[in-house]
């Protein structure tokens, strides 16, 4: 839907921090921004992740046309991204960013970055005003917009994608159940790459799996993964296993491959996020942690069995869509947000047994 305010706007800056999963859950909003400002150049202000296992937003969006390159005078698409220096206290660095944004002269900004306190929002808005931006959509001043709403009937919380959609409702309503709003617009080359890397599995149905993680508090443990994959290999000898993740996750993925005892390919570190999405689109299902690959699988409509730590509140980061199965054990410390759990010894994870994961996989495969 093209809105009245979009006709006169030629340049839109989108403010979204995070890495792979954060970018995927923002896809419906990015599609809505493209519909609201179809003729505008749209650039992204984002960070470069501090961890090598976490792909940057441009690795997910480059080629999607959700971030545009028109008016870049032949410059590479990477120039459609402004780098946000998270946590910097260097006034000179912020001044350079301000000068860079002002030189581009954006007329509007869409605010998609989560903030815990309204003071942070006020600070950001002041900075963008100093960049010369007059129209700002989605700045979450109110606590209700900054927080995921609780459904008291179910005890579950609003998905992050839904909260984001509320922040930009001035640009139009977003149907999160519409697959088009999750479309990564994969290229023919990316799809062909998926066919090529899956060739060693022949015509077998594919089980995609990601067993690594950059966060200690979300690591279920290599031993448990090996128990699950060893059992699945015996029950489903007709299937092939593909392991996805960052290069640093190659070691734990090799252990998983040995446990599978069947046809398997380990692609950790060999694919771009978009090529991984193309592989996931050709997979029967996905099995793994709460992770970027899980969000990619959900985006391409592949069913997930996902194991969640209780570091986040229930459902906020669950895979979007129907047919997924999530294993989440609520604890008195849920929502802690910890990256490293020592005191509680990851009790939310130790409560999840391999047999429960196996049952979830079997139930998902039975769906056809």
What does this protein structure show overall?
It contains 14 helices and 13 strands. The strands form three sheets. The chain has a six-stranded parallel beta sheet with strand order 10-9-8-11-12-13, with helices on both faces. Strands 3-2-1-4-5 form a five-stranded parallel beta sheet, covered by helices on one side. It has a two-stranded antiparallel ribbon with strand order 6-7. α8 packs across α11, α9 (222-235) crosses α14 (354-366) and α11 (273-281) crosses α12 (292-299). α12 (292-299) links the parallel β11 (285-289) and β12 (304-308). The chain has two domains: 4-182, 3-Layer(aba) Sandwich (Rossmann fold); 189-366, Glycogen Phosphorylase B (Rossmann fold, 3-Layer(aba) Sandwich), CATH 3.40.50. Helix content is 35%, strand content 14%.
List its traits.
single chain; 368 residues; Rossmann fold; 2 domains; 6-stranded parallel beta sheet; 14 helices; 35% helix
The global form is globular
Task: Give me the number of helical elements.
Answer: 14
Distance between the termini: 36 Å
Per DSSP, what share of the residues sits in E-state strands of 2 or more residues? Answer: 5-15%
CATH architecture assignment of the largest domain: 3-Layer(aba) Sandwich
Mind sketching the topology for me?
Layout: E1 11-15, H1 20-25, H2 27-36, E2 41-46, H3 57-61, E3 81-83, H4 91-104, E4 108-111, H5 118-130, E5 135-137, H6 143-146, E6 150-151, E7 156-157, H7 160-167, H8 188-197, E8 206-210, H9 222-235, E9 240-243, H10 250-260, E10 264-266, H11 273-281, E11 285-289, H12 292-299, E12 304-308, E13 325-328, H13 347-350, H14 354-366
Parallel strand pairs: 1-2, 1-4, 2-3, 4-5, 8-9, 8-11, 9-10, 11-12, 12-13
Antiparallel strand pairs: 6-7
Helix pairs in contact: 8-11, 9-10, 9-14, 11-12
């Amino acid at each position: 839907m093209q809105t009245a305010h979009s006709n006169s706007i030629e340049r839109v800056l989108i403010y979204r921090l995070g890495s792979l999963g954060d970018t995927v859950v923002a896809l419906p909003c990015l599609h809505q921004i493209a519909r609201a400002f179809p003729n505008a150049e749209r650039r992204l202000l984002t960070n470069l992740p501090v961890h090598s296992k976490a792909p940057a937003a441009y690795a997910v969006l480059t080629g999607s046309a959700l971030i545009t390159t028109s008016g870049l005078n032949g410059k590479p698409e990477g120039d459609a991204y402004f780098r946000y220096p998270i946590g910097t206290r260097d006034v000179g660095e912020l001044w350079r960013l301000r000068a860079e944004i002002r030189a581009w002269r954006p007329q509007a900004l869409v605010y998609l970055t989560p903030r815990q306190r309204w003071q942070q929002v006020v600070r950001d808005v002041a900075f963008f005003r100093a960049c010369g931006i007059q129209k700002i959509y989605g700045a979450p001043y109110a606590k209700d917009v900054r927080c995921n709403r609780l459904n008291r009937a179910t005890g579950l919380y609003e998905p992050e994608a839904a909260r984001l959609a509320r922040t930009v409702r001035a640009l139009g309503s977003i149907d999160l159940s519409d697959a088009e709003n999750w479309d990564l617009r994969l290229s023919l080359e990316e799809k062909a790459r998926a066919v090529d890397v899956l060739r060693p599995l022949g015509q077998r149905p594919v089980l995609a799996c990601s067993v690594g993680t950059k966060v200690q508090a979300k690591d279920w443990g290599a031993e448990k993964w090996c128990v699950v994959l060893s059992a699945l290999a015996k029950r489903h000898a007709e299937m092939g296993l593909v392991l996805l993740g960052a290069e640093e996750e190659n070691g734990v993925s090799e252990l998983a491959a040995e446990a599978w005892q069947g046809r398997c390919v380990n692609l950790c570190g060999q694919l771009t996020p978009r090529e991984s999405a193309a592989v996931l689109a050709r997979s029967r299902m996905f099995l793994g942690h709460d992770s970027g690959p899980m969000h990619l699988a959900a985006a391409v409509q592949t069913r997930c069995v996902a194991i969640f730590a209780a570091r986040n509140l229930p459902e906020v980061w669950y895979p979007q869509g129907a047919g997924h199965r999530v294993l989440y054990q609520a604890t008195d410390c849920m929502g802690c947000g910890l990256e490293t759990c020592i005191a509680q010894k990851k009790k939310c994870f130790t409560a999840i047994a391999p047999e429960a994961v196996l049952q979830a996989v079997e139930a998902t495969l039975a769906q056809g």
